[in-house]
Each structure stands twice: as structure tokens, then as C-alpha cells.
Amino acid sequence: MTRYLVAIHHPDDYDPSAAEEEAMSRDIDALNDEMKVAGVRIFVGGLRPASSATALRAQPNGEVIVTDGPYLETKEHVGGFWVLEVADLDAALAWGRKAAVACRAPVEVRPLY
Predict the structure, then answer these.
(1) Nearest-angstrom CA–CA distance, 25 and 3
(2) How many alpha carbons fall within 13 Å on the CB side of residue 94?
């Protein structure tokens, strides 16, 4: 069995209170339940907006610079994720497809080391 990250991507201006209507929440809850029953879900987590992030960058002299905001300035950010343990990439992609539908957002599937 291999572990995979299934990450949901949101635009920078994503507001869950406005975007996540009741039907979407039900779909995500149903997907979480399905993952639990299938025994594939290791961990799940939603992330606060990228604007609430704090970035730390090590400098050559050993100092660490701490700045408010995300590490990268992008138009999208990871808004939430699952860590799944499944047989192979095909199985991970099957769950990723379900996540994309439930979350109504792009999803990235990536194996963990």
C-alpha cells in the first residue's frame, strides 16, 4: 500500500463561507464517510486562507527570516487535503476524481515517500 496526498486547490480570494453551500458540504461529508468505510483515509484537514500563513526562510548565515503571508505568491493555494493509503496510483486517482467533484475545485494527487 502506498500513501498519497490528495490536495484541493482554491483561488487566493476563496471564501468558504460564501463558496461552500450546503450541498457541497454534504458531498464532502459523504466522501469523508466513504473514505472511512473503505479504510483508506489516514488524515484529512482543511487549511485557513493562505493570507493567514507565516513563511520561514533560512538564510546562508543561519538566520531564519519570518514573514507574514504564504511562502509563494500565487493565484491558487492548497485549501485542504487528505492523506490516503491505497493500493496504487489508479486507486488514488479514483479518490481524487471524487474529491474534485465533491469540492468543486481542482485536485492534485501526489505519492508520499
Answers:
(1) 25
(2) 11
pLDDT in tens, 39-93: 999 999 999 888 889 999 999 999 999 999 887 778 899 999 999 999 999 999 9
Q: What is the pTM of this model?
A: 0.88
**2-111 is classed CATH 3.40.1830.10:** no
Residue 1: CB atoms within 10 Å: 9
Nearest to 83 by CA among 103, 112, 106, 113: 112
53 burial via Cβ count (<10 Å: 0-12, 13-18, 19+): middle
